Amino acid sequence: MEQLTIGAFARRARLSPKALRLYDRLGLLTPRRVDEATGYRWYDPDQVDRARLVVLLRRLDMPLARIAEVVELPGPEAADAVAAHWSAAEERFAAQRAVAGLLQDRLSGRSQDMYEVTLTETAGHTVLTERRRVLAGELPRWIPRSCERLHALAESCGGAAGPPFVVYHGEVSEESDSPAEVCLPVAADVPSARAAVHRATAAPAEPDAGAMSARPEPPRRLAAARVTKSLMVYPRMLPVYDAVAQWALDQGLERVGPGREIYFADWAPAAPEDEVCAIAFPVR
Question: What's the burial of 276, exposed, middle or buried (CB within 10 Å: 0-12/13-18/19+)?
């Protein structure tokens, strides 16, 4: 097979010689032959497909180290890796789009959305909980999986007795991992629920699972605003937290606990304009 110089191969692969030298150093695309006397690199024409694959993966902003792994995978596994990379990228773009919209509204002085805040009373009950330190980007995956685990456990605790809610015990952001707690009210009393948790935690936990427990949740007075699904993307929900906190202050109420999100509707089938969650603070 006729071999190609680095310049000829670069033209076929639509890469620069500089990029080819970098990919050689990283082991992504190694020349078939290097002349020991001159250092000239020679490539086979059948390496063009691999080179173009590297180019396309780079256009997805895939890190070079990850590309080195993907190009060695069988076709179906490589396709799955691309799908996973793009799914993560879309989540990141959605969060960045939310940040851009928030900044545009703030910097342009456009009026912020108005939220109707109301006072509600909750009864005391037992809650099953799963708690772990988490970053904002992990919440969209962790919260639903945690709810699934708690609902499964609730079957041995008389069933769920209310909607799940998430309590944030610190500032959760893209840079700050703080404790978050997914809670599910159940019909059982606290000792029975704790016994069910003890039995469940005897088995190996899923990789993303937090620490499970059961505790009493006292009656609460909540200042809360209902929010649509489209707003429940970090950081788009942050102005809602600010609005609820400011409303409580204006009413002369004291916040007596961390903020929480109460998921009162089924998330998956909800449309973007459907109300799915209430953002709330305990007050007195």
Answer: buried
Is 0.85 topped by the overall pTM?
Answer: no
Q: Are 185 and 125 in contact, with CB atoms under 8 Å apart?
A: yes
Distance CA 1, CA 45 (A): 8
Strand runs (DSSP E) across the chain, as ranges? Answer: 4-5, 33-34, 41-43, 117-122, 125-134, 165-168, 178-186, 211-217, 220-228, 260-263, 275-282
Tens digit of pLDDT for each residue in 124-177? Answer: 999 999 999 999 888 989 999 999 999 999 999 999 999 999 999 998 887 888
Tokens of 172: 């959760």
Q: Cβ distance 244 to 274 under 8 Å?
A: no
Tokens matching residue 145:
């999986």
Q: How far apart are the first and last CA of the chain?
A: 82
Residues 6+ apart with CB under 8 A from 96: none
